[in-house]
Sequence to fold (290 residues):
Amino acid sequence: MNDPQPVSIHGGHSGQFCGHAKDTLEEIVLAYIDQRYPWVGITEHMPPVSDAFVYPEEKSAGFDAGMLRERFATYMATCRRLQAKYADEIRIYVGFETEDFSGSLDFAKTLIDTFSPDYVVGSVHHVKDIPFDYSNARYDEAADRCGGLDGLYGAYFDQQYEMIGSMAPRVVGHLDIVRIFDPDYRSRLLKPAIWEKIVRNLKLIKQLNLILDFNLRPLTRGEDEPYLSAPILKKAAELGIDIVPGDDSHGLDTIGAHMHSAITTLRAVGVCTDWCTPVDAPHDPVFTNE
Fold:
């Protein structure tokens, strides 16, 4: 049996287009080529709908929402240029990562209509419009707004369920990122009221024939398991959901990091490593918001 090839269905953030990443997008692409990736998905963050959702790092760099929209347009054009330039060496799938805060899903639809990406990654980084993964302080703020950590998890997975159902993104990004600053996440994820929501979301992902991002970003921070945590990965595999590695790279030093161990983990639970690409079984995102 041939060894599975390294791929990334969610990654390619660069300092050129992301305030918390580094290196240029072309340097990122060349690194994937050097590491013999047959294909990669480049999925930069979508811009905010208003100045209220501009991150502090972006404000410090002098950006407002309008400027970030212009940068996003440049990102899409640059990604398409690199897609054509290196077509003989690697398949680049041009995408972007959605947000889920007030007004963001309708704005994502506008971006899809305007830029026609190859696919999108549906992610949730906000609960009650608070960017809970930005810092421990914002995480605690979001938890307080939800009545505690159990409430934060419940609100997150409910919001994720609504996003998946209304948008049907081709890829669902880092499904359990809500655990990011919770040292007790292993036991909390398995609490019956929370686990029930997780399984519900996984069943919807299977029903819609979407792909789960096996996100390696936590490993690059020194954590001991990716998103998906072990019980979620096991359940997703049992349901027959397509699961594909995503390095969620934010610079040259994280491309390919931990890929071998990720593939070993996926094979151990029976995940097919004949990777589904983000344009397999293509479908258009379906928005049912009224």
